[in-house]
Amino acid sequence: MTLTLEIVFVHNFSAITKNYHFSDEFIIGERKWSLLLYPKGDARVKRGSFSLYLKVADSPKLPLNWKLYATIKQHEKEVSSWFSASMNIWGFSNFICSSDLNDKSKGFIMYNTLIVEVEILVMSVIKKFT
What we know:
The two termini are about 20 Å apart. The chain has a single domain (about 1-125), classed as Apoptosis, Tumor Necrosis Factor Receptor Associated Protein 2, Chain A (Sandwich). The protein has one helix and ten strands, in the order E-E-E-E-E-E-E-E-H-E-E. The protein is mainly beta. Helices cover about 5% and strands about 55% of the residues.
């Protein structure tokens, strides 16, 4: 098992003009990860929400049948799931409301930089099926 706390910084957050944005990649265990952000919420939620997902960034380079079971904690929310070639993104469509995200006293955005703490516990990895 691998437990890691990663702090991800997204600089110039207010300058993001697309519906979504990928963070820079970071390494936990043997995998490269990135965050997928929807500053105004993804298609499953109404405006006024911030959506946040964790992606296995190097999944195209992995064997076809790879699987990884992980628990992800992000700001008091937790999800456990299998990541795989067909499902390499997991997270929260309604992670936090936009007003809380932009509330300076809550500390999510400082000096136009979004700060996200991601805790990942990799519990099991299947590299090859027989």
